[in-house]
Amino acid sequence: MRGASEAEQAEARSLIAQAVERYGRDLPHTEADKDQVQRILDQARQEAPARAADRWGLLGTFGLNRWLTPIDDAVRNPFIPYGLAGIIFGAAMVFFAYIGFDAVSTQAEEALRPQRDVPLAILASLIICTILYIGVAAVITGMVPYPDIDTEAAVAAAFRQRGEGVQTPLLKGLLRGASGLISLGAIAGMTSVLLITFLGQVRIFLAMARDGLLPPSIFAAVHPRFKTPHLSTLLVGIVISLVAAFTPITMLEKMVNIGTLMAFVMVCAAVMVLRIQRPHVERPFRTPCLFVFGPLGIVVNLVMMLFLPPTT
Length: 312
Description:
69% of the residues lie in helices and 0% in strands. The chain is mostly helical. Among the domains are: 56-98 and 248-311, no CATH class; 144-246, no CATH class. The longest helix has 42 residues, at 169-210. It is extended and about 90 Å long.
């Protein structure tokens, strides 16, 4: 305590004495206790990087989270219990909910007026689904406290839990029936999403084969009767089945998220490059304020990628 006055030194000694008197019983006294405490501290230091990576993703792996931790602590409150890191990590993890919208563009050949219908369909579906997502989240958190939300089947479990606490037989039956109906709807929804994603991937390969990026004999082959890329469909179906059978679903989810985020980064960059290099090409749909939304899209997607676990 160099440079401190005698009064400050006396106050410091008094505080130390009070701390020892209050917590002295809990302090290690024997050598065995000291060794145990040291082992716990060493283990905590060893686990610190892994814990930082779990919370901050790649930022925690490279130690870049130290500058964001004060901001994270400042915004943490009962409404935002997991702080800034939790918000961005959650956004990156649920990003797969917005994957299917780009599949609309792969069906442009099926539209009567693709120049008008495809952009309108993408924007309208985005707006409608975002409103529905927010509404469902508000309903669930209103029915069940957020720490008790079932992460496996949030909506169905919320109705089932509410039904268990109801005494009226009719209302209990309605809530349980709603839970079962929601579960069936979830299965149907996931099936339709899988089919649409499957269909979109095949059409993307078809376009790439027409441009010479993939073997046309396989990916551009069209069935003479059904007029569909049947060979590509069979090949993609086999690959998807094998990956789904031997890869953990949680790992697939993370891989899909980071892959889609990277694809969106590349799309934002490619659109800006094309606008610069080929400004006079006819564009039925022109992105408004491209050089504002393009860089913003790249930055937002890259930030969400940095918050994903390093294993992805």
